[in-house]
Amino acid sequence: MKKDAPQNMIPRLGGRFFWKQVKGAVDAGAESLYLAMFDEIDEGTAFFKCTNTPPVGESSFITYEGEAPDHYLWLAGEAAKYLRGELRSSRMPVR
Questions:
Q1: To 10 degrees, the CA torsion angle through 76, 77, 81, 87?
Q2: For residues 63-75, average pLDDT
């Protein structure tokens, strides 16, 4: 949202970047995770439903690269399960 900021500076990679951060924190002993707030869209850390078909025009948008609109909300729920030890594998879950 900042005019001169590079877009997609850290690619989401379909959630693999996020999962690497979750796994690293949990494996290091974290007992809780602070993910992000719903309004942090300009920082690239917002969690909310999104579209892969943004409006066209003067503004540019980063999509979820074909992932479901709620992909990152779902993945955050899976991260909570991993944190609580409810997932058998540390690999990023897939739907």
A1: -80
A2: 84
